[in-house]
Each structure stands twice: as structure tokens, then as C-alpha cells.
Design brief:
mainly beta
Length: 150
Amino acid sequence: MKPLLLALPALLLAACMNESATFYLVEGRDQSLTLQAKQPWFWDQRVDLEVVMSRLPDCQRRSPLEAAMPAEIALEVFRPEAGEFAEPILILRQGGRHYALGLAGCGLQAFKAPPQKPGSLLGTFRMDGQRLKFKAAPAPAAATPPAAPQ
């Protein structure tokens, strides 16, 4: 009976998730976006999600997102065109929800309506088996210059 009681805490935590993945916005590691997925209780199928925007040494902020089922974790990261918004931001899309993530102050704010031009897709955070990963979007192909007249 005693070995069973000693194993109980390990069994309770066995199905819990605590994963994170990071996307570095610039060379070096002073600007990054991290998604954290935590499932604190094995009986609760939903996973708590938080983004951590870091622009060191100026700011670092953790902001909650909507909880999701592990198989449904997908957070797309977009970079709008320069001048599209008043300040430099990233746009995050989680299902039907869109968020503006300020690069200057590391703040997160939900859009009331989806943005018309979210910008270019930088990549997506999603589960890959039991691991949370960021997969960068393929770089757009360079335009082929027109052939020279002969």
C-alpha cells in the first residue's frame, strides 16, 4: 500500500503539460516571442496559454491567451507592413481571435474586429507530437527579373 501512495503524486502529474517554444525576432536574443502551454491538472483537458514578449533590456511582459485543447494549439504570427499601424506591432491569430502585440512596450491587446491586412506570416506555434514548436513560414520567393529585350 505504501508504494502506491508514494507513486500517486507522479501519476497525478504524468498527464500534465508544461511546454514552451520561442521565436527570435532579430539576430541575437534581445527580442523574442515565447508561447507557453501549461496543463496543471490531468483531469482538465484544456491547456492554459500565455505569450511572453521580450525586448531586453526595456520590457518583458507575460499575457494570457484563450485556453485550448492540445491538438488545437495554433498561434500564427504576422508582421504588418511598415506604417500600417501607429507603432510597430506583431499580429497574433489564435483561431478567430486576433491580438496586437506592441514591440515597443511588450503589451498585448485584443482586436475588436479582425485586421484587414495582418501582414506577412512569420510562422506558427503548434504542437508537434508532445512538444510545442515554432515553425517559421517559408520565405517568399524572390521575384524573377524580366528578361532583357533582344
